[in-house]
Amino acid sequence: MKLQRVEHVELGERMSVDELMRAYARAGVLGAGALGKACNILEEMVRSRATLFLGIAGCVVAGGMRRVITELIRMGAVSAVVTNGASVVHDVIEALGGEHYAGSFCAGDAELHERGIGRMGNVYTKVESFTAFEDYMQGLLGSMSEQQRSNLSIRELLSEIGASLQDRHSFLRAAHEMKVPVFSPAITDSMVGLQLFFFSQNNSLVLNAVKDMREMAQLVIEAERVGALFLGGGVPKHYILGACLLRGGIDYGIQITLDREEAGSLSGARLEEGISWGKTAKHARVVSVTGDVTLVLPLLVASLRERMREWSEGTG
Fold first, then answer.
1. Mean pLDDT for all residues in the chain
2. pTM score > 0.90 for this model?
3. Contact 79, 219 (CB under 8 A)
């Protein structure tokens, strides 16, 4: 084992985000070291033009990260998105004019329910926003031809949603414009799924999830290098890693999670564990950052943005 001296972080008077992240990497230890390493790995992923999968789980969009995710997509860093259904719902709600609120309500959950307010931790939203979402989804599905609905992949559905939204801060809209496919394998476990069920009661609708797997497989097989940025774990993480079995695993990986590995859960599993399954390549550069995505993600994206600016200016 080769030891490396810890370089203590020194705060410059006008230090940029990326300068701080580079100082973290030079320190090289504990949480700061992991975050600094994550910035370096993300830079290498993007600079090497690796096929980069972005996995989105948890309360990330409703928790204030919507524009950060959208910017990362618009920067051209992301090749494909795999998201939970909830992030789709909350992205659309915002695009339709709905809002999310910080926890300033002095009320119990029973009272919140009576007032038509739902809670996700200390993030709140009005139930009436879901009424607008219902009207939107029923209208969108109704606008599709019966032939289109007869063999509709989840990715195709999400592309239709992205194309229909006018809000440029929508990550679904950004993905559509940047030709970045969005997958959501467990989408029926969300309000989208409920609206699909309602629509199917009086209309023909066949959602073909296998079509998505074919498209994912093609992306993985054709890639020279594959990287993944996991915002949380869950189904998006496993879907990406499972697809990468087809090529011997990911070459780069960054995981941001508050889950722990002791319980044997996928969300808490370190990416190195994937080597035993062939989901992470033996040579892969990976790091797990233990932390809240809402704290870590903006630092990662801000750092990458500064580095990409340096590349374009020829100074990095």
1. 92
2. yes
3. yes
d(CA 69, CA 87): 11
Over 70: is that where the pLDDT of 316 sits? no
Query: Do the beta carbons of residue 54 and residue 231 sit within 8 Å?
Result: yes
Structure tokens at 148: 């289109």
AA letter at 245: L
282 in catalytic set: no
- Using an 8 Å Cβ cutoff, are 155 and 181 in contact? yes
Catalytic residue among 211, 237, 279, 282: 279
Bridge pairing between strands 250-257 and 280-290: parallel
- Helix pair 85-95, 66-74: axis angle to 10 deg: 90
Distance between CA atoms of residues 185 and 194, nearest Å: 15
124 beta partners: 101, 119
Show me where the domains of the chain are located: 50-91+129-295
Task: Give the dihedral sign, CA 60/108/126/131.
Answer: positive
Strand order in the sheet with 100-102: 100-102, 123-126, 117-120
CATH architecture of 50-91+129-295: 3-Layer(aba) Sandwich (3.40)
